[in-house]
């Protein structure tokens, strides 16, 4: 903590040029005596700290002295605060406020605002805190997991928390599969940190390239109604091979599996017309017939 405070005092003096011991003690929430000891430490380390007694006095860096701007520029500090602010949206503590106190940040709020939370932020925040605790203490995680083929109980050795594809995951070693796996936090229930310890495993660098084995090799050509085209553009961007006419937005979109393609197309209801390939058109029609039969029987 003292090192952070010393850096904060230097940063404050660099920005304000002159301040008071009282102001520094309030900013860093320590006694004036502690600030005086910190100033002595900085002076012994070679920083030209000047104290001016009496009214209008205070503490300052010697005229002409400037910290190396490459240590922490205004833009770099703003980027750090923006990043930490985004983590605050899913954290139980405020990293941004803590850093501001340590570095003496006294400028406007960052221009970029990022919220990594969800509608169920409280649940997500609690899960992330549990996973962080399990990783830090090297204890396994137990949870019930829902996936495409059903649901089952899992117990893993957590290694990393990952934000990817607009969702949160935990990456870790699954003893049952004898492999590293990604598990989506939104699909977890009954998450607990067990008392079972584990020794962290070395992770092959290629396993940290999340999604590298996922390819969009199954292409579906379709025409999306004008009122639904925003969803396509929002998800995939407006590419050069897409075009719009009186029928709507024509787009060729790649999918990793036909199941993924089905979920996407069915979500549009009557606002999409599938053009190709014939294999998927047949699969889509079969799924629609099954839906009709479910409500006709």
Structural description of this entry:
This protein is 38% helix and 27% strand. Strand 2 (49-52) and strand 3 (58-61) form a beta hairpin. It is elongated. The model has no long low-confidence stretch (mean pLDDT 81). With 297 residues, the protein is of the alpha+beta class. Strands 7-6-5-4-8 form a 5-stranded antiparallel β-sheet, covered by helices on one side. Strands 10-11-9-12 form a 4-stranded antiparallel β-sheet. Helix 2 packs across helix 3 (32-44) and helix 8 crosses helix 9. The chain is built from 9 helices and 12 strands. The protein has helices at 2-16, 21-28, 32-44, 74-88, 95-103, 121-137, 229-236, 258-266, 278-296; strands at 18-19, 49-52, 58-61, 139-147, 150-164, 167-174, 179-184, 188-197, 218-224, 243-245, 248-255, 272-276.
């Amino acid at each position: 903590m003292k090192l952070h405070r010393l850096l904060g005092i230097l940063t404050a003096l660099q920005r304000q040029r002159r301040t008071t011991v009282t102001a520094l003690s309030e900013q860093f929430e320590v006694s004036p005596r502690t600030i005086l000891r910190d100033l002595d430490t900085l002076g012994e380390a070679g920083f030209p700290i000047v104290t001016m007694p009496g009214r209008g006095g205070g503490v300052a860096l010697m005229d002409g002295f400037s910290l190396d701007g490459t240590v922490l520029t205004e833009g770099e500090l703003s980027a750090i605060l923006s990043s930490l602010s985004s983590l605050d949206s899913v954290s139980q503590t405020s990293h941004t406020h803590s850093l501001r106190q340590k570095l003496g940040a006294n400028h406007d709020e960052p221009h970029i605002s990022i919220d990594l939370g969800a509608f169920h932020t409280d649940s997500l925040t609690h899960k992330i805190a549990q996973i962080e605790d399990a990783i830090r203490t090297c204890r396994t995680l137990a949870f019930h997991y829902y996936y495409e083929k059903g649901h089952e109980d899992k117990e893993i050795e957590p290694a990393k928390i990952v934000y990817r594809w607009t969702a949160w995951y935990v990456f870790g070693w699954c003893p049952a599969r004898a492999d590293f796996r990604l598990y989506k936090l939104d699909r977890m229930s009954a998450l607990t940190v067990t008392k079972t310890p584990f020794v962290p495993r070395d992770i092959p660098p290629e396993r940290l390239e999340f999604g590298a084995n996922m390819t969009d090799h199954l292409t579906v050509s379709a025409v999306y109604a004008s009122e639904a085209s925003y969803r396509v553009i929002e998800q995939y961007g407006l590419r050069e091979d897409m075009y719009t006419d009186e029928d709507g937005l024509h787009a060729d979109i790649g999918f990793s599996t036909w199941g993924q393609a089905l979920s996407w197309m069915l979500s549009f209801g009557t606002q999409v017309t599938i053009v190709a390939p014939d294999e998927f058109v047949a699969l889509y029609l079969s799924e629609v017939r099954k839906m009709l039969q479910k409500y006709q029987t």
